[in-house]
C-alpha cells in the first residue's frame, strides 16, 4: 500500500499556493519529503500564474524539522545530473524561483528545516512557538543544505558561527534580533498577518516582483558551488568516528525519554551527548 505523501498543496487562488508538511510526531524530513518538495517547487516555478507560495506545517510544535538521522546517508540525488543532491537543487531553485516564498513558522525549525526556511524570501515566526537551530556539529557532523552559506550572510559571521557551533535552540525573539527571521508575530496574529502580506503581494505585477527579487539575489545569494561543496563535506563527516560515537547517545536519550520530549528540547539533549557518561546519566533522571 502506498504511503501518503508528507507534502500536500492547497491552491488558495490562481496566484497563491500553500505547501503543507505533515510527518508526525515531530516532522522529520525524509527522502520522500525531499523528492516531493523538489517536484512541487519545479512545477510552481513553471506556472506563470503563481506569484506567492506559503510553506507551513500541520503538526503543532513543528515547522519543517531536521533530516531523519536514521536516513542521513540515504537522501536522494537528482536524476540525470551527476553528483547533484536533490536537496541542494531544491533550495537553490527555491531561492531563485520567480514567485515569492513565505515561511509561516509555528514550531521547531532545525537543520534541513532551517535551511529550507533560509532559502525562502520571507520568514514570519510565531513569537511563542517558533524555535530555530542547526544541530549537526553537536552530534559530530556538518550542515549540508545551505545554512553555512546563508545564515552568516543574514546575521553576521560571529553569530552564524555561534548558532552553528553551539547547536543550540534559539527562540523567535532572539532570532529576530539576530536577523535570522523577517519578524516574529504573536501566535494568535501569525496567520492573519501572513494572509495580509500574501494578499498584498498577489495584487502586484508578477514580473516586477520577480525582477526585484532577482536584483536582491544578485548581491545576497551564495554561489551555488559553495552549497555543493558543503554537501560533499557533510557526506565525508558521516564517516567520522565522533559521529559514530555521539549518534548512539542521542538515540539512547530518545529511547529513554521518547522522541517528542527529546525533539522538544533538542539543543539541551545534544549538550548531554557531549558530557561524560556519569554526568549525562544523572541528568537524564531530571524532567
From TrEMBL:
<dbReference type="InterPro" id="IPR018376">
    <property type="entry name" value="Enoyl-CoA_hyd/isom_CS"/>
</dbReference>
<dbReference type="GO" id="GO:0003824">
    <property type="term" value="F:catalytic activity"/>
</dbReference>
<comment type="similarity">
    <text>Belongs to the enoyl-CoA hydratase/isomerase family.</text>
</comment>
<protein>
    <submittedName>
        <fullName>Enoyl-CoA hydratase</fullName>
    </submittedName>
</protein>
<dbReference type="Pfam" id="PF00378">
    <property type="entry name" value="ECH_1"/>
</dbReference>
<dbReference type="InterPro" id="IPR029045">
    <property type="entry name" value="ClpP/crotonase-like_dom_sf"/>
</dbReference>
<dbReference type="InterPro" id="IPR001753">
    <property type="entry name" value="Enoyl-CoA_hydra/iso"/>
</dbReference>
